[in-house]
Design goal:
The complex is a heterodimer. Chain A is mostly helical. Chain A has two domains: 16-131 and 241-263, no CATH class; 153-225, no CATH class. Chain A has helices at 16-19, 22-35, 42-58, 63-69, 71-87, 104-130, 133-143, 154-184, 194-199, 202-225, 244-263; strands at 93-97, 100-103. In chain A, strands 1-2 form a two-stranded antiparallel sheet. The two termini of chain A are 42 Å apart. In chain B, the strands form two sheets. A six-stranded mixed β-sheet of chain B has the order 6-7-8-3-9-10, sandwiched between helices. In chain B, helix 3 (103-113) packs across helix 4 (118-131), helix 3 packs parallel to helix 5 (148-160) and helix 4 packs across helix 5. The longest helix of chain B is centred in the middle third of the chain and has 17 residues, at 178-194. The radius of gyration of chain B is 21 Å and the shape is globular. The chains are: A mainly alpha, B alpha/beta. The interface between A and B is medium-sized, with 27 and 29 residues. Chain B: It comes from Thalassobacillus cyri. Chain B: Residues 3-246 form the ABC transporter domain. Chain B: It holds the Pfam family ABC_tran. Chain B: Forms a stable energy-coupling factor (ECF) transporter complex composed of 2 membrane-embedded substrate-binding proteins (S component), 2 ATP-binding proteins (A component) and 2 transmembrane proteins (T component).
């Protein structure tokens, strides 16, 4: 399961989407999430789907990998559809099973909502698939920059984010390592009564916490040893910059928005 | 227990962009009661191989047989738990797995999971702590109050207390001081003889492999590069250099002696003092001895 979950997993590449400034990606995704709720006609949905699927294709990430990776979310999408099918009672009766009637309204509504859902998840997962966590935090730090004026600790927030993102894989590895070591000593994490399985978590969590605290201390020491003293006057290795590519993409996106409002019914 | 690998391949995250073939078509046989060393560069598949020995990983292709247990891709292995009782694994930095309030409880944790009765656990705990050369007083201390070296020994005792037939060691001396390294390795060597264990040692150290193992397998990119008794394998300089390994110092030295003086001194696990005597005898007397 863990190996097939791709949300949050970066896939290296050199596509247009990979090369975009992370701020561009975040901005566009933010507005995309908003305008998805304005779509209400076949044409407008089509336009948004084209945009989302087109972006996904242009990343050159294999399609079956994307589809498989979103597997856990497929369940939600299908569930949403079925829920609408049962609950919405508008339009004409489409067909009925026993005495229960299914309406065209429910069918259309279900389809539309699941499609929205799918588009939202697809586009947002494209962000993490094509952007390294470091780029994302850099972008957030830069976009929250103006808040520094009201003494909001933007740099510290970004640092906290990047440290925790950085240590997710480390902690995952650590968890795997310790759970394997305990499994070798006869702990059964997979079968048996729920009570036993909850108990089996203790030999996993205790060593995990111990090493996490140790690691935090070591990291703090290493940072101090290298003279870290907060964001004041700190320069960056990679400066973010909006290039020509970003401008083209913005123009394309504005055209999509205009198109959306023209095709709404 | 006999251990057999038959055309074993293992692929991490198959069918994704992260697909990685860690083992490919690996076959070998380990006789019951032998001490074998598995050597290889980082990323050669040593750790992956090791995890097949107690069913933590199942081969993507091929079959692993350990005693009467069979592990293969399509069949679900029965009694995986009893296999794990018989194959004790000491992972790299095993002290990271300690979690109990007292050393005694931590050592007894393995046997407890395998439903060994209390009396027997008590007996084994004491035996294990003695085997790793720690004083019994430590049993009531918290494992987190101990020094790094002591924690390592407690963790090893925790594996020994399971009373395994096969002992799998993944670089058990990494991060210890030279003296500690020697002590820990000698301890494993003694246990191997006393309890007639089948021991599998994964290591970087050519010296340890030469000193303790009676059979060596060298891995390269998940494939078997060389295999055989230490004195046959560890003298093949060219092939070892090919996988960025060095001939052990003693062997290197003896072969240089042979080149310079035209006389052969064989290696039979002698220590430095013994070797010096043999050399002196050779230089002085010139009389033939093997």
């Amino acid at each position: 399961m863990s190996s097939s979950m791709i949300i949050g997993q970066y896939v290296p590449g050199n596509s247009v989407i990979h090369r975009l400034d992370p701020r561009t990606k975040i901005t566009i995704i933010f507005f995309f999430v908003l305008i998805v709720f304005f779509a209400n006609s076949v044409m407008s949905y089509g336009l948004l789907t084209l945009f989302a699927v087109g972006s996904a294709v242009s990343t050159k990430i294999p399609a079956n990998y994307l589809i498989k990776g979103l597997l856990p979310v497929w369940f939600l999408i299908v569930f949403t559809f079925i829920l609408h099918l049962f609950v919405t009672k508008e339009g004409e009766v489409l067909f009925s099973i026993f005495t229960f009637d299914f309406y065209t309204g429910g069918f259309i509504q279900g389809l539309a909502i699941s499609l929205r859902f799918f588009l939202l998840i697809l586009v947002t997962s494209l962000l993490t698939l094509t952007t390294t966590p470091i780029e994302i935090t850099d972008a957030i730090e830069s976009m929250l920059g103006p808040l520094k004026k009201i003494r909001f600790p933007v740099h510290e927030l970004a640092l906290m984010m990047s440290i925790s993102l950085r240590f997710i894989p480390t902690l995952m590895q650590e968890t795997e390592k310790i759970s394997k070591a305990q499994a070798s000593r006869g702990v059964d994490f997979r079968t048996g009564p729920v009570k036993d399985r909850i108990k089996a978590v203790v030999p996993l969590l205790v060593p995990l916490f111990v090493s996490a605290f140790k690691r935090a201390e070591e990291l703090a020491m290493a940072m101090e040893a290298r003279g870290y003293q907060g964001g004041e006057g700190r320069t960056k290795l990679r400066e973010l910059s909006i290039g020509r590519l970003d401008i083209y993409i913005y123009i394309l996106f504005v055209l999509v928005i205009i198109g959306l409002f023209m095709t709404r019914s | 227990m006999d251990i057999t690998f038959k055309d074993v391949s293992y692929i991490y995250q198959p069918n994704t962009p992260f697909e990685h073939r860690a083992l490919s078509e690996l076959s070998f046989h380990i006789r019951s009661g032998s001490f074998i060393a598995i050597i290889g560069h980082t990323g050669s598949g040593k750790s992956t191989l090791l995890q097949h020995l107690n069913g933590l990983l199942r081969p993507t292709e091929g079959e692993v047989t350990i005693g009467t247990y069979k592990i293969s891709a399509d069949e679900k292995t029965k009694n995986i738990k009893s296999l794990r009782e018989k194959v004790g694994v000491v992972f790299q930095y095993p002290e990271h797995q300690l979690f109990e309030e007292t050393v005694e409880k931590d050592i007894g944790f393995g046997p407890l999971n395998f439903h060994v009765d209390q009396e027997e656990i008590k007996r084994r705990t004491r035996e294990a702590i003695k085997a790793v050369d720690l004083p019994e007083e430590l049993l009531h201390r918290s494992p987190f109050d101990l020094s790094g070296g002591q924690m390592r020994r407690v963790a090893i005792a925790g594996v020994l207390a399971m009373d395994p037939n096969v002992l799998v060691l993944d670089e058990p001396t990494a991060g210890l001081d030279p003296r500690g390294q020697r002590e820990v390795m000698d301890m494993f060597s003694n246990l191997h003889k006393e309890k007639k264990l089948t021991t599998v040692l994964v290591t970087h150290s050519m010296e340890d492999a030469l000193r303790y193992a009676d059979h060596i397998i060298i891995l390269k990119d998940g494939k078997k590069h060389l295999e055989g008794p230490p004195l046959e394998v560890l003298v093949r300089k060219k092939e070892l250099e090919h996988v960025q390994l060095d001939v052990p110092e003693v062997i290197q030295f003896l072969s240089e002696v042979e080149e310079k003086f035209g006389k052969t001194i064989s290696y039979h696990n002698q220590n430095i003092a013994q070797l010096a005597k043999e050399l002196a005898a050779m230089v002085k007397g010139g009389d033939d001895h093997e």
